[in-house]
Amino acid sequence: MSTLMEKPAAARSAWPAWFQAEQRAALAEYEALPAPARKDESWRFANIKALDLSAFAEATPVASETRLIQASAGLAETSAKLVLGNNALLLREAPALPKGVIFETLEAAASNHADLFKKYFMAQPVELGSRKFAALHKARTSGGAFLYIPANTSVTLPIEIFQWVEGANASVFPHTLIICGENSSATVVDYFKSADRLPALACGVNDLHLARGARLTYIAVQDWSHETTAFHLNSTIVERDATCTALIANFGGGFVRGENLSRLVGEGARSEMFSINPVEGTREIDQRTLQDHVAPHATSDLLYLNALDGKSRTIFAGLIKVEPGAKGTDAYQKVKNLILSDDADPNSMPGLEILNDEVRCSHGATNGPVSAEELFYMAARGIPKDKARRLVVNGFFNSLLARLENAPLRTHLESLVAARLSIA
Amino acid sequence: METKPDINIDRSIGDFHYDVDYEFDAGTGLTEKTIDYICDVKKDPDWIREFRKDALRKFNSMPMPTHWASPDLENIVFDNIRYYLSQGTQPKRSWDDVPEDVKRTFERLGIPEQERKFLAGVEAQFDSEAAYSNIKAAVGEQGVIFVGSTEGLQKHPEIFKKWFGKVIPTGDNKFSALNSAVFSGGSFIYIPPGVKVKHPLQAYFRINAENFGQFERTLIIADEGSEVMYMEGCTAPKFETSTLHSAVVELVALKGAKIQYITVQNWSSNVFNLVTKRGLAHEEAEIKWIDCNIGSRLTMKYPGVVMKGRKARGEVISIALAGDGQHQDTGAKMIHAADETTSNIVSKSISIGNGRATYRGLVQVGRHLKGCKNNTECDALLINTDSRTDTYPAITVRGKENACQHEASVSKISAEQIFYMQQRGIPEGAAMSLAVNGFVNDLVQQFPMEYSVELKRLIDLEMEGSVG
Q1: ipTM
Q2: DSSP letter string over A210-278?
Q3: What is the pTM for the complete model shown?
């Protein structure tokens, strides 16, 4: 078994030579950068001990390819599907993609569409604390998903991506790069799944780029095994009059560090950042967000919902930053923690940095239990307490899903949430 | 469209300075020798000398908290600061003994001589030692101790030693360590059980020496069922070089006691004001900080309440006004450590010109507690285009029978409000001033009458020239 530090066998890499050189530089950067320390403000409240990655090794090709392809089922109707297992392509289907849309592995795109790749791949600096892990991702990523939608093109049916990990202590480096041309539109559902209930490392990066007037709905269904250590570093660039709706559902993962940056660089840009997080046991979901208003008259709206049971932990550290020139900004940020047990540990740090006076800006953080009245109402109708609690959590998450416009997508996600909460 | 010019606040107000002959002066810089000098002059007992030296070691070993705080802290040159300066070691007995030139400073700052009657049990601090001390007979008769911190530790060691440094340990932060090393001045107050002090106890603090840091240390103990209100106000003359002010205030409210601590500060814009304030509330006790910060170059102050007894209550009401070149980094800390404890934080800030107002908060509810509640509201008002505001709360509320909510909003004065007033003949500047006063009005009303009047005057002063 090879460790993460060793060079991958050169023959296996399908990356072009120039990118392999960048990967070697990234590995050196990973080794040189210091590990996060307790005193780092961007790791405040985090369980630094979970960052020891020495147990993880490079993944070997998946053994249960057929089973994983069969299990890669999501929405009833899609326009394309990509299935990756342990960093390698297992399946690509594109029955209903409009002309000009490029949907292939990132590795293929690096050779076939090097200009696009070079312009958008990890183009944003990692600002929320995980530079070291971003370097590791770059050094080790392979496979990956690449989606390019040309200007004035609508992909009406959703596109689905499945990224699997299989094997004990396997490490995967999923990457999704989405480039939406001017006035294009698309819906993408990105599933992160484990083939087994074994410890694994997932260190993923997403780059979403929306050109002028584009519309993108991006859903990440993170369903790693509860033994998985995961990093998900997302950055979104929204240009003029474009609208991005991103929802991250953290159903799995034992230790999950999510960093979500949305930068509004054009007037009239709009970014919605949503997250639903059912956590229990000793799981820890650590999410850091940045709503960076560079351009005037842009809107960002963040809503994160956490339901905590057992000895679980959540950390939400959000920042709305309104740059000096960003007049007429509308920015909202809200985190709600639903507390289901005495041992749960929710930490909220909703922050604002406003450098401009013409803004409408608010943030909020609430912590509260399931209301006794709701439980009583259901008890009076013969619903056992445990189920009643799960129903309340279900309703809590559904209140957010209701904000998605696409009805089949919403129904699909509602059924995933219900399944996750074991509601028949 | 944009017609608002840059504002120029007239900081020369409060810009008064009279030469004072300092009898005792420890020179600049801070070493063990400085500590020995202070101890010798103040005739400190040995345990205080040890306490100070231990604090100095901690101060020297602790890094600047710039991993989260303003990098402006690096501009403090500790070697250029005078750590001890006294006009005389004995507090003055009566108003008549107060030197004329000192009285004149008071008067220029708008404190009429008649206000003496308000100075019930006064500790008017002039530089680091009490220049004037007149404990009102009535308060003394109730058994209330209201003295300077030096007198407190010398004459009432049994109470002083029990609580001193217990609410805020020396190593709490770099500046509490600094204060513990070189403290002088400040008040020591003890309220016996059941005594409700009718008059607010007041202390006026003044800084009046170039490069002179003021490190007062206040300890207030309210015994079971007692009540007290303490007020401090600060105005500082303006100087060329930076001045450091780093106080430590510890409050102890025993069972059922109530303490209100009111601060109105108007520092000159070259002062670093780095203050640690914390209260310990026992069962059913209540501690309320009412805090108004105006002026200074950088203020860092987060009054806190540790609620360690059942049904204890903590409250912070805070107004911050950051003018040009100023950074108000203020907030609150609420530590819930017992069942059914409740806390409330209301913070309002106003940023003028390129001023920056920051709210930094901490709310913690420990596990296995029941019925704890916190409510936090932060509102920020931005006056000019390059005004800045930040909010950095940290909330950890454990336990399924506790609740907390935090809300913050940022806004500017609505053009409609200003238009409405202008239409009725109120000039734009006055209208802005009225709008700002309206923004903070519900909080200002919580201040004692004379303070709320002073506060409104200060806001008008700060708003002068912010438009038109």
Answers
A1: 0.83
A2: E-TT-EEEEEEEEE--TTEEEEEEEEEEE-TT-EEEEEEEE---SEEEEEEEEEE-STT-EEEEEEEEE
A3: 0.86
